[in-house]
Structures are given as structure tokens and as C-alpha cells.
Amino acid sequence: MFLDYFALGIIFFVAIFIFYGVIAIHDIPYEIAKKRNHPQQDALHIAGWVSLFTLHAIWPFLWIWATLYREDRGWGFSEVVEKEQVLDSEIKGLTETVRKLEQRLAAVEGVNTATESNIPVVDAVNITPEGKV
């Protein structure tokens, strides 16, 4: 009789241990993401709970997703980020140059319109092929 209860206790212990183990395993990608300060930690956490219902079929993909990001180098494309920063600074410089040129052009056009006010305006529609109006 004692062995029957002991076996039943072991079965319950193993079932509870396995159940807890499965729930603890599903949270590993979220813990990795939290440690790496992943920008999509919440999505990983929810996807981890969803993986419980898919019998952890998507769990390896969650683990890969969580480990792809590192705070010091982002998604691993540091060379691309550096190029983007260089291009961004070049765009800012070009924008400033265009702004200055527009200001100079406006100033020059303001001077030209004042000096050209004495020039007669010819209507291009009424000019004959000989050049007479």
C-alpha cells in the first residue's frame, strides 16, 4: 500500500516538475532579450507564451530573434550604421549649402528686378518671324 502512494507521489512530482520546466523554458528568449535590452522584448515575451500553445515549435526562432540584437552593436550592421551617419552629415551640409545659395539667389534677384524695371517687356506671342512686333 505504501509503495502505491509513493509511486503516485512521484508521478505527481514529475508531472509538476515537467509542467514547470516547460513554462520556464518558454521564457528563455525573453530573458535573453531583457538582458540585451532588445527593443522588441514585449513581442518576444508574448511570442514565448504563444509558443506554449504551438508546443514550442516556434521557440528556436524566438531564441534566434532574441540573440540577433545586442545593445553595443545593434542588429550587427555597424558598417551600415556608420555609412548612414556619414550620409546624414553630408545631407545636412548640402541642405545648409542649398539654403545659403537660395538666400544669395533671392538677394541677387532682388537687385536684378530693381535694375531691370526700365527694360521693356516684349510679348512673345505677338512677335512676327522677322522680329517685328
Describe this structure in words.
With 133 residues, the protein is mostly helical. It is 71% helix and 0% strand. The protein is built from five helices and no strands. The protein has helices at residues 2-26, 28-35, 41-53, 59-68, 78-115. α2 runs antiparallel to α3 and α2 (28-35) packs parallel to α4 (59-68). The radius of gyration is 36 Å and the shape is rod-shaped. The mean pLDDT is 84.
Question: Which helices and strands, and how do they pair?
Answer:
Blueprint: H1 2-26, H2 28-35, H3 41-53, H4 59-68, H5 78-115
Defining key terms:
133 residues, mainly alpha, 5 helices, 0% strand, rod-shaped
Structural class: mainly alpha
Mass-distribution shape: rod-shaped
Number of E-state strands: 0
Helix fraction by DSSP (H/I, runs of at least 4):
over 70%
The separation of the N and C termini measures 125 Å
How are helices and strands ordered from N to C?
Answer: HHHHH
Major sheet description? none
Measured by DSSP, the beta-strand proportion falls in under 5%
Number of helices: 5
Low-confidence stretches: none
Rg, alpha carbons? 36 Å
Task: Name the average pLDDT.
Answer: 84
Quick overview of this protein structure:
Helix content is 71%, strand content 0%.
